[in-house]
Queue: 2 jobs
Job 1
Amino acid sequence: MDIYEAIKKRHSVRSYLNKPIPADIISELESEISLCNDEGGLHIQLVTDEPEAFSGFMAHYGKFSGVKNYIALIGEKSSELDVKLGYYGERLAIKAQQLGLNTCWVAMSFSKRKSKCITESGEKLICVLSLGYGETQGTAHKSKPIEQLCNVKGDMPDWFRKGMECAALAPTAMNQQKFLFTLNGDRVSVKPTGGFYSKVDLGIVMYHFEIGSGKKLMKQP
Ligand SMILES: Cc1cc2nc3c(=O)[nH]c(=O)nc-3n(C[C@H](O)[C@H](O)[C@H](O)COP(=O)(O)O)c2cc1C
C-alpha cells in the first residue's frame, strides 16, 4: 500500500482481533521506530503481547477491546517533545497501516501505570498508539472544510491544496482539528489554535502536510 493510500485508509480502530503480529512485520516496525528515535532523539518503544495497559476501566470506558500491542511515545522532556512525538508517532501509524495493521492514538483511554515500557528519569510518556489487526477498518472522520484550516493570500497553489487535503485526513484529539496553516509567498507556517493535546496534533498534521505537499516542515537534525 503506498503512503497516500495509507493516509486515506487510516482511521482509528479500537477493537482488535486475537491475531498476533508476525515476526517479520514486528521487525519492520522496529526498524522504523529506530529511524524515528535516531532522527528525533526520542525513546519510542514497541510493546507486544501485553494486555494489561488496556485492561482497566479507562480502556473499557473508551471502548477499546483486544488491545495487546502498542507503541509507547516517549522522549526527554522539552518544549518540543509533544510536536516531535506527534510527527514521528504519525509516521509510525502510517507505516503500520502500510504493513496491514490498524492503530488508534490514545492519550486517556489506557493505564500509564500498567504499561510495560521504560520511561527513564527526565523522560515523559505522552501517548500510545494501539496496534493490531482491527475487527473493522474504522470509518472516516468528519472534517472541517480545508478553507477553515488554512489562511492563504491569493490563489491556493496545487501543492499547498494537496498538503491541506492530507492534513484534513489526520487524526486529532477528539477530532478537534484545531490548527491553522498559513501560506505567505511560498512560506508555510502552522500553529495550534488551542484545545487538548494540540501540540501533539500539530506534529501529526505537519507530517500529513509534508506527505501531501512534498515540502518539509519539521526541522531535520
Ligand atoms: C493526540 C490524540 C489523542 C487521542 N486520545 C484518544 C483517547 O484517549 N481515546 C480515544 O478513544 N481516542 C483518542 N484519540 C483518537 C481520536 O479521537 C481520533 O483520532 C479522531 O476522532 C479522528 O478520527 P480518526 O483517527 O478515525 O481519523 C486521540 C487522537 C489524538 C490525535
Job 2
Amino acid sequence: MQRILFVDDDSSVLDGLKRMLRPFRHQWDMVFAASGPEALELLSRGGFDVMLTDMRMPDMNGAELLTEVARRYPQTVRIILSGTWDQDLRMKAAVTAHQYLAKPCHGERLRGTIQRALALREKLAIPELRESITRVVALPSSPAAFEALTGVLRSAAPSIQEAGAVVSRDMAMTAKVLQLANSTFFGYGRHITNPAETTAYLGVESMRALTFTAPVFSAYASPCYQRFSLDALERHAGAVTRAAVEIAKSRNCSKQMLDDTLVAGLLHDIGKLALASEFPRQYDEFLADAPDFPDAERAAFGASHSEIGSYLLWLWGLPDEVVEAVAFHHEPANCPRREFGPLAAVHIADALERHASLAIDPELDRNYLGELGLTSQLPAWIEDWERRRAEQGAS
Ligand SMILES: [Fe+2]
Ligand SMILES: [Fe+2]
C-alpha cells in the first residue's frame, strides 16, 4: 500500500480528512500527525510516498517541516494544505513544496492531487533517479534571461509585461511560474499555461520575492567541462515552440490549446536541463559519446529526457496536456490519447527542427500522424516551415 502522511495541529481538520478519504482506506495507508515533530518521528520509522501539511502550526511551522523532509526524505512528494495567505510563508513554501492546496479543499481536488502524486512512482521507475528529480525545486535559467529579469524587476517602475516577455523565453522560469499558478500557491489553482499571463497574475511583488528573497530563480553556471549548451537548448526550444504554434493555428485551435502548445514546445526538452543541472559531469560525458536519443539516455540514466521532464512537470502540477506532450514527444504512439493536440504539434515541430539542425532523418511517426488523420496536412506544414526558415535565413 502506498503511504500518505497528513499533518495538521487542528484535530477537526484531521477528522474531516479521515472522513473525506475513508473510501480509500483499503488502497492507501493513511497516517495522521498533530505536529511537525510528530510527523518527523513517524517519517523516521518508515517512508511515505506523499506528505500533506498545514503551514501554521505551533511547534514547527509547515515551511520548517518541509525543509527537513526535503533534506532527509527527498523522495517524499511534499504538498501544502493550508488556509494561510501569509506572503512570507508562501514564498518559503514555493522553495520547499511541490504543490499547494488551499483550505478548505474540495474533496475531488484533494483526491485527484493525491492520486496524481501517487502515480509518480510509475513514471520514473529507478528509485535513485526519482529521488534526485523529486529533490529539484527549481532549475537554473540562462544567465541572459536571469539578468534581463533582475534588470526589469530592479527598475523604479517595473513592467510586468516586460517581465512576462523574459519568462516566456526561459524554460526554468516558465515551469516555475506555471507550477505556482496551477497549484494554489497564489490563490489561482486553475489551468493556466500562457507564461506572460501567468507572470502578470503573480504580479511584480511575487516576482521580486521569487527572484531576490526566496530565491527560486537563478542563473545557470556552466562548468568549463560542459558540452551541454543551454543557449543551444533554448534556441531549439524557441524554434520548436514557433513551429508547433503555427501548426496548431492552422487547425483553428482554441486559445487554451494554443497556450498549451506554446508551453509544451518551450518545455518539451526540459528533461535535458534537469539532467545537465543535476548530473553535470555524467551528462557531459554522455553527450560526448552518444546522441541524445531516448534509448541511449535510458541506458545511461535509467530514463529518457522526455520521461524525466514529464515527471518533473507532473510533480509540479502542470496541466495534463503539457505533461503528455513532454512525455511522448519522441514516441507519440505510446500516448493512449489519439487526437490532435499539443503532443502532435510538438512532435512534428521537434522532428522538423532536429532534422534541420542535426542532419538526421526526420523522426516523424507517420503511422501515428495517419491515425490522427493528419497525413494530408503534413506536406503543407513542412512547406510552411521551410519557407519561414528561408525567410529567417534571408533576413
Ligand atoms: Fe526531445
Ligand atoms: Fe527537442
